[in-house]
Amino acid sequence: MQNSGASRSVKIAAFLFSAAIFVAAVAALDMTVSKLVPTGVNEADPKLGWRLKKNVTYRREKTTFAGRKYDVTLATDEYGTRTFGARRTAPIRILVLGDSFTGEPYASNDQMWYAALVRRLAELTGRPLDDFYVVAAASGGYGTLQTLLLSQEVKQFYTPTLLIHQFCDNDFSNNSFAQEQKSVVLNQWMQRPYLATDRETIVWHEGTLARLYRAMLYRSALFGVFDRALQVSLSSHYGGYLMIKEKDKDAYLREVRAATYDPEAIDLTRFLLAKLRRTFENVPAAMFDCPIEPTSVNSIWVDAARTAGFTPITAPSDDLLTAKARGELDLFATDGAHLSDTGNEVMGRVLAQEILSLGLIQNR
């Protein structure tokens, strides 16, 4: 009996020792990966799911779709927003809301489209550049609910004279609790808050897996590497971003189209855009789309913007898509969709001309 008890004690001790060694090894590997893999610009947030880190400076070398290398410095302030301008009390204060085309490090703060926008506006209006200030509140992958929640935070410390919402066609599905579950982009739908069907309650994907995912993604570099590898594998398996197995091409395209043009997702997006507009109802507001290949979704977002009270502007996206068709690939990042430093310059300058012609900013 004594030998049996001693044997059990030895086994328990060996198990605990092995477990401790395993945990230590995983922790050491995680620390090694965190040093080898560049830290991202986002962090977990209990209300938004994720957001840009506060008071961070992120420097990386990027490559355009044409192969040119260029340097990027993304900087955020104490609120986790990107800014451009000399003083927050400038007479023309612009609030920019958006997703990866505004918040991700595809260009430095002073090379982003909103920086090019105010430089061009200064030229066109004859105002000094110091008359303009931009707060850009965004993060890659944001849906309209996240944009709305973040804008309500920004309103507490910044009073804009012009609101610009950078929209993207995939925002429709990003806003849908049902449609997002078909996506292989786990780090969005596992992390994102959604508006419930009652249009009041905010809901999250629940369950042990979802909670574990939210707890680990921005805290473990090793988990982040695993997550990216999993999403690449799923994307390759399904032949795209939707977890809809391709049986035959026509059937697959019908399913993709149904998910893209889901009436409930579009109606919910209209509702959220109207709430976003009312948050800043006393200032002029413009909305433009990122340069995604033209589809009938474009006409849907234009109508949704106008109905919500935004002035829709299509010229920046149209011009960039035309340039892409001409082979001007240096305007785009390596993924061929997001904009490089020069692409941001084009977008900002075109947008400035449109904003001035629409009377959203006055000449001196």
TrEMBL record:
Keywords: Signal. The keyword Signal applies. Residues 1-27 form the signal peptide. SUPFAM superfamilies: SGNH hydrolase. GO terms for molecular function: hydrolase activity, acting on ester bonds. The keyword tRNA processing does not apply. Gene3D superfamilies: SGNH hydrolase. The lineage of its organism: Bacteria, Pseudomonadati, Pseudomonadota, Alphaproteobacteria, Hyphomicrobiales. This is SGNH hydrolase-type esterase domain-containing protein.
